[in-house]
Amino acid sequence: xxxxxxxxxxxxxKFKDIFVNFENLDSQIKKKAFLRHDVEADLDKxxxxxxxxxxxxxxxxxxxxxxxxxxxxxxxxxxxxxKKIHKFKQKIGLHYYSKFRDSKNFNFQDFKKQQILLxxxxxxxxxxxxxxxxxxxxxxxQLEASRAKRAPKGYIDCYSPxxxxxxxSPTKAKIKYMxxxxxxxxxxxxLNEDLKNFDTYQILMHPExxxxxxxxxxxxxxxxxxxx
Length: 228
Description:
Low-confidence stretches: none
Distance between the termini: 31 Å
């Protein structure tokens, strides 16, 4: 696929009638799709996708890092960008990158610290505290914690069994997960998916990947956007 704006909008159009927010845990809708955006490096691109989502009346969840080497959420510029995402009627969450991610004793030890950092920024912007989080580069240890439903109390884990299925047989899965990581759809492309096949979908689209035709230009685009 081309990673162009039309392709992105076509994905939204295809799923817009079944998109449900992660926080809508009481939804009784049988067929549903959850839209997630992990902001790895570029809040400017996140604003761009947020605007496209609003144009289709779709609410996605933008998970933001607070320990990134590439952006500081407390800078004046980035606070303004987060506010713009919120004004486009999108949800803000935490993209949780734990230094304990490879530890057999992983138990969200540094989650509270990151929660405070993000909620402090959101409070400054008069945005409600976040409820949803996703892992940055999840390990098998973290995914096992999610499968065991060990997420911090009161928070919604995008990798919990409600949204993500752990299986060695994708053809037998009941939840379809699709992601554009590294500028390719390794688990299938949303536009090629027959909506009759599954009742639950999770679609992850990274802001940094759009709209860029050449995967080799993704990182140069990130570097250019970081220069202010």
